[in-house]
Amino acid sequence: MSIATERLVNGLLKGFGGSLSPGKVRALLSQDVEIVAPHSRAHPGDLWPAIWALAAVLERQVFGRVFIRCGLVGALPAPSRLGPRCHFEDSQRAVSLSIHVGLPAVNEDSNKITGDARAGAIASGSVFDVNLAPPTPIECFVLAGFLGYATIAHLVGVPDSGKEYALPTLQLPSDYAHLAKALDETDGYTCIGLGQIGQAYLALLYFLCGGALAGRRIALIDDDKFQSENGRTQLLLEEGGDWLRKDKVSYIERILGGWGADVLAVPNKIDWTWRRGSDHPPLALLGLHDLEGRRIASAAGFERLIEAGVGTNLLKPRITWHTLPGDSDIGRRLFRERARQMQDDDIQAAWADELRSTPGKCGWVQFLGVSSTAPCLGTAAAAFALAELGTRVDVVSGAALLWSQCLPISRERTP
């Protein structure tokens, strides 16, 4: 196993502080799971975006199989194809964990979890009244993110911290009438950064736009190529696809072209000399891994920016999001450097000592240098961020924890 290219395994090793070995973590994640949903709700106007997003997340987080029981014989139209370890089934299979989406679990036990999405909210451990309005793709992606992390927690045994503050439901902070209006009136987006969060934005836009971007302008800005480790975190990279070592902008341009978008590929790295071009849509979606990039984009001449981020402590899975006008002063205030790096002696374990004993501690340095993450985090973060298209205030700063489920979110509004 290469811990340098499996970011979820890497993050769990760091989070458990050496109490689990790399082999043990991988074994726990190598179990089969299933998604169960009612056939009546497995369509694009209801839970299909949640079913697809959860399956796409799970196939990247587990090394076993993902069975899908929702009355379908195969996938409906979606941003990318599910991989060969995802199987649509009409009968129950032996699995380690059953995830019920919009369907109460009969004889609920420790091997079953339940969630639902309707009417601008998600539920954990229960389902909503059938008379409530169906969810938008926003709630579906939030639910997929929460259930995706719950799967990790159940398989690996992540402590249920903050459970006493958890709620049965979580209302999403958005004016949905205004969100629908904003989606209808926005003719394009400038997507800066095409990694985990950038691709989650685009996948969600696919569903929000009904599977056809209908000529919407999309500027794609990234100067990087896809590496092997990207396949287990990024939703548009199909297992076994031809994306490895391809330019990010050209590969994603081809995908979006199939959705009917008018794509402008910009294979550039942004720096302090870079400015928004006249052909770049004025609304920027930031999927950047560093805070300096966020500060640069804030000063680049966009009318408005939407941004999301994920934490690296995978036992306390934190996500953040912001919406703000293009303003360098606001960017500097919101995106100050404050990250703490793991120290050399934070993990004491035999496998860690083996990494430290490599020439020049090369193996240990490589381990510490991996950016720990899981695709469930980016999926939820992008959804919370795009929900802010429905806000009517200048600056919003939000944060949420995906575990325990449905903990109250933090959201500050600055008029």
Count of DSSP-assigned helices: 12
Helix content: 25-40%
Order of helices and strands: HHEHEEEEEHEHEHEHEEHEEHHHHEE
**Largest sheet descriptor:** 8 strands, mixed
Count of β-strands: 15
Question: Which structural class should the secondary elements be placed in?
Answer: alpha/beta
What's the end-to-end separation, in Å?
A: 50 Å
Task: Indicate the proportion of strand residues.
Answer: 15-25%
Global Rg: 20 Å
* Nearest-integer average pLDDT: 92
Which strand order do you get reading across the main beta sheet? 10-9-8-11-12-13-14-15
**Unreliable segments of 5+ consecutive residues:** none
- Coarse morphology: globular
Description:
With 415 residues, the protein is α/β, with parallel strands linked by helices. It is built from twelve helices and 15 strands. It has helices at 7-15, 22-28, 48-61, 137-156, 176-185, 196-208, 248-258, 291-298, 328-334, 350-356, 362-369, 375-387, and strands spanning 33-36, 66-69, 86-88, 97-101, 112-118, 121-124, 169-171, 188-192, 217-221, 262-266, 283-286, 304-310, 318-325, 395-401, 410-414. The strands form two sheets. Strands 10-9-8-11-12-13-14-15 form an eight-stranded mixed beta sheet, sandwiched between helices. A seven-stranded mixed beta sheet has the order 3-2-1-4-5-6-7, with helices on one face.
What would a concise description of this structure say?
The chain is α/β, with parallel strands linked by helices and 415 residues long.
Write out key terms for the chains shown.
415 residues; alpha/beta; 8-stranded mixed β-sheet; 7-stranded mixed β-sheet; 12 helices; 15 strands; 18% strand; globular
